């Protein structure tokens, strides 16, 4: 089972993901490959797989990524081999992923559950970002413009979770995870004999 979650900055996506992971011990967060340098306290293989740009480009050429993106001259990507290795251990994967990544991932795995966390309104999102106190007005305006561009892609997703109440948004996301366990793809994977009688 693969769960893909996107949402604009400030919508509460990271908190929702943390709660869902905590409630599902067989669900693990995808670990991306990146060409950027590790920050203090970041651990190779836990936070990211830190590799050189030539290594990353070689993986791209071999078609090893489920999705990848270039962000500010650095590359980020999800290794399909890594995902499959976790699934062989009996784990399910949760992806914290942007719109560009979803577009690519859907071409390879349209059967995953694609969830977008959305604010109840742009005014609400503006208020949340302002409340953080970490942005000046110019940076805040840029984040809101980026959020609006991201939200224009809502129709790519199977599910839209409105975060107007954090507890309810976590419950709604958790309900989607539970329902995904009963998808045709998941059930047939667990009991392949069913295909033989149908």
Features:
198 residues; alpha/beta; Rossmann fold; 4-stranded mixed beta sheet; 9 helices; globular
Task: Report on the architecture of this protein.
A hairpin with a 2-residue loop joins strand 5 (about 65-70) and strand 6. The strands form two sheets. The protein has a five-stranded parallel beta sheet with strand order 2-7-1-8-9, sandwiched between helices. Strands 4-3-6-5 form a four-stranded mixed beta sheet. The two termini are about 20 Å apart. The chain has nine helices and nine strands. It has about 200 residues and is α/β, with parallel strands linked by helices. The mean pLDDT is about 95. The chain has one domain (about 1-195): P-loop containing nucleotide triphosphate hydrolases (Rossmann fold), CATH 3.40.50.300.
Q: What's the short version?
A:
By secondary structure, the chain is α/β, with parallel strands linked by helices. It has 9 helices and 9 strands.
